[in-house]
Design brief:
alpha/beta; 8-stranded mixed sheet; 8 strands; about 15% strand
């Protein structure tokens, strides 16, 4: 079967990612993007979980009622493909696969994959105070805070950055790239100087330098004195938002018509929020799906929440 539209969603075996795939299939028929059959690659690190997610969507009652999938006469086909954004080779392999399978390019990609570790120090008890975490780290002889920051930035910032670069090499001009960020990365948590540094940054190297500065500050135990929040996930997502804006600006300056945006899905009830979220995954999927398929004019380089651009 040939497809006139092709897209990819990362971290899609559960939670918001799986809901994004579901809502792409539901909303595509009535979207302005619809010009024929759609193929969506549902990507995940683990093959068995990814394939189970595809099977789950193929038997999903909402999709069945809507006859959204090709096996029920609909327009959308969902396929699994392995992707671990913490592994550059995995990212490279997926991009090479897409280039080979779809030499004319794909239409959109949603970078949803990411991690949220427990505070700064995983090995300290949940709910531990910063002092208790640091005491635990000293007893074990490991800088747990720095380790969590390193792992979180490696996946959430550097992994998303590499996936962004690779996806842009296969997205047709005029397509869409969506990076799922978070309101946790709001700049209200930073000192005035750091906030200004983020807002003034116009290039990816400038944002990367800020991420490295944070990593070094945590390693030295003086991140608060430098104006950073003591929160690896939040800073990684500030990096994702800043990087997305910088990439969008760079692409616009090259004359590209591809729309590149970051968004927060909201506080969604998933494993990542430990079941404390106030939104369902389907509700959280609405803004990423809008940015992938919806009528957003020529808006690019923005941070979106609740289906509209907001201040970062």
């Amino acid at each position: 079967m040939s497809y006139t539209r092709v897209g990819a969603v990362t971290g899609a075996n559960k939670g918001i990612g799986q809901a994004i795939v579901r809502n792409l299939a539901l909303q595509y028929p009535k979207s302005s993007f619809n010009n024929g059959p759609l193929l969506v690659y549902l990507s995940a690190r683990d093959q068995s979980r990814g394939e189970e997610a595809v099977e789950s969507l193929q038997s999903d009652s909402q999709l069945k009622r809507a006859k959204a999938l090709s096996e029920d006469g609909g327009l959308t086909t969902i396929r699994y493909h392995q992707l671990d954004i913490s592994d550059n080779k995995s990212i490279d392999d997926f991009a090479a696969f897409l280039k080979k399978e779809h030499p004319d390019g794909i239409d959109f990609a949603v970078n949803n994959a990411g991690i949220a570790m427990d505070g700064f120090g995983e090995l300290a008890p949940r709910g531990a105070t910063p002092t208790q975490r640091k005491t635990s780290a000293l007893i074990s002889g490991i800088n747990l805070d720095a380790n969590v920051v390193k792992q979180t930035l490696h996946t959430n910032y550097y992994g998303t950055l590499e996936a962004t670069r690779q996806f842009l090499s296969v997205i047709r001009d005029g397509g869409r790239l969506v990076n799922v960020s978070s309101l946790a990365g709001s700049l209200s948590k930073y000192s005035n100087n750091l906030r200004k540094s983020f807002l003034d940054a116009k290039t990816v190297p400038e944002i990367t330098a800020l991420m490295e500065n944070f990593k070094e500050a945590v390693k030295n135990g003086n991140e608060k004195q430098q104006g950073w929040p003591s929160a690896a996930y939040a800073v990684s997502k500030a990096g994702v938002t800043g990087m997305t804006k910088a990439v969008a600006l760079h692409e616009q300056q090259k004359g590209s018509k591809t729309l590149i945006n970051a968004c927060c899905p909201g506080y969604v009830n998933t494993d990542m929020s430990k079941g404390n979220g106030t939104k369902t995954p389907d509700q959280g999927a609405q803004t990423p799906v809008l940015l992938a398929l919806g009528d957003i004019g020529d808006q690019s380089g923005l941070f979106w929440h609740c289906e509209k651009p907001i201040e970062w």
